[in-house]
Every structure is written in C-alpha cells, then in structure tokens.
Amino acid sequence: MKITYTARKVNLRENFKERTEKKLLKFGKLFSEDAAVNVVVTLEKNRQTVEITIRDNGMVYRAESTMPEMNDALDKVTDILMRQIRKNKTRLEKRIKTGNFEEFVAQNSEINEPEDDDYKIVRKKQVLIKPISVDEAILEMNMINHSFFMFINAETDEVNVVYKRADGNYGLLESAVE
Q: Cα dist. 126→78, 123, 152 in Å?
C-alpha cells in the first residue's frame, strides 16, 4: 500500500506515522500493493481529526474520527474501517489473493458485532427530478428536511446529488467515469 500523509495545522511526528503504518498493515492482505491510502490529520480548537481513505481496484473505504488526542482518533478510524470491510466482506473475498477472510477478521478484530451479510431495502421510492440549479436543490433539500437531494443540474444536464455534511456545510456529488 502506498500511504500519503496530509497535515493541516499540525506537524506529524514519526511515531504517529509508524503507528499508522502498523495499524494499516492489518489491512495489507485485503488490498493490492497498488492500493492508495490517504491519511489526513487536522487540528481544530484542541480537537484532532484523522481521516483515512483507502482506494483499490474501484473500491473506496473512508473513515473519519475527531478526538482530543490524535492516537485515539487513529484507533477509532481503524475500528470504523474494519467494520466497513467486515460489512462488505463478500466483495472483498472475491478480491483477496491469499489468505482466508474469516481468519483475517478473527485475528484483527477486537470488536464483536453482529454481521449483516444482506442489505435490506425497507422502502423504494421514485422521485421526479427536474433541471434546477445547485442553489435551488439545496433550498428544496432544506424545505423537505432531508440530508440529501437528487436533481438534474441545469448547467450540465447531469444527475447530481447535494448533501448536508457533518460540519454543517454542503457537498455536491457529480458523476464521473474512471
């Protein structure tokens, strides 16, 4: 795995990088050697945020945690990533070249949570989408009190999604071909 570090408003110590690499080695046999790992550490008002994104063969796993201590945030992020990987184990099992997935999870998991192998769709809804601007989409999303809103972008004629981020700002999802 190729690990890239980004530090915002903080200097990363070597021992943090070593600890991060040691924790990420747990995921080593699940991903190829070409897997790209981005570790972003941000300091804001005595709170440290660690964000890890793993990209490999079209799969993307991302987790983020904010804690007073950087190492605590790192521990939480790796636990979140492990849960995500466990949830998507069938997709991963097809991609693992060596080793047994169940054995990997048993060796590297301190958390015993029930596993959901199937996703259950409890509601299906059809939505009429019309060409509107991004600002109009955000207004409509806020009016119906949802955390996301799908629409056709009037400027690009593409299907887009606006969403409300945890920090209170908004995000825009645009489609792209790899």
A: 36, 10, 15
